[in-house]
Amino acid sequence: KEVSKIRRTSILRGLNLAVFFISSKLILLVAFVVFVLGVKGDLTPEKVFVCMALFNNLRLSMTLFFPYAIAQGAESIISLKRIQKFLLLEEQQETSHLDVSNLRPKLSQCGIWMQKVIASWDKEGDSTLRNVTLTVKPGELLAVVGPVGCGKTSLLMSILGELPIVSGEVKVRGKVAYASQEPWVFGGSVKQNVIFGSAPDDNKYKTVLNVCALDK
Question: Which percentage of the chain shows pLDDT scores above 70?
Fold first, then answer.
């Protein structure tokens, strides 16, 4: 389904470029034929050059900039809808399923417990997680594997408290670090991603580089 939409978009872009390159010649040909045969006018060099200059100026605006503006406008609407959907999500609440009372516990006190957890992104939709029971002991390395769409990311989101819990209990003791499979960076330099539009702070910048092992 996604490939078919990409193919359709590519075809429309190709047609738009084709119209851009042939429109001025085709319009000039039709205009001159109608002027000579229909109106019975005299086709002089002055009229030809004026028409060519006029249609060339219109071609750039009508066959390139105007479709480009429509495409960018559609993408802007989609982006705004995604931002609106994100802003309308329920605020994350500190409930009993997430215990962050001790910010620096001992290793023996760390761990993750999940008991018969049912979670869903949409209250009216199907459950994303169903009756999940999980225990991660201190110092234990746990790998969750499975096919695409089986709920691996949803499991992590429930541990982070980002996925609403319908029933069951989730307890996390200790600090949680999450590394997403998709980098949370934008197109720019490392420094721009670190300061993120804020006033430059050399000490903070060097600290971030050191923590991320980017100064080696």
Answer: 90
Determine, yes or no, domain membership for 93: no
Q: How many helices (H) and strands (E) does the chain have?
A: 6, 3
Assess contact for 149 and 134: CB atoms under 8 A.
no
CB atoms within 10 A of CB 21: 10
CA–CA separation, 141 vs 138, rounded Å? 9
User: What is the domain-level CATH number for residue 128?
Assistant: 3.40.50.300
- The whole-angstrom separation of Cα 73 and Cα 50 is 33
Q: CB within 8 A of 136, min separation 6: which ones? A: 111, 112, 113, 142
- pLDDT tens-digit profile of 17-69? 787 777 777 878 888 888 888 777 777 888 788 888 887 777 777 777 887 88
In-domain check, residue 191 = yes
Same domain, 117 and 70: no
- Model pLDDT for residues 155-172, shown as the tens digit of each residue: 888 888 888 888 888 888
Residue ending a domain, choose from 88, 119, 146 = 88
Give the CA angle between residues 130, 120, 147 to the nearest 5°: 60
Q: Report the candidate in 190, 183, 189, 184 with the shortest Cα–Cα distance to residue 210.
A: 190
118: three-class secondary structure by DSSP: strand
Q: Which residues contact 146 (CB under 8 A, 6 or more apart)?
A: 152
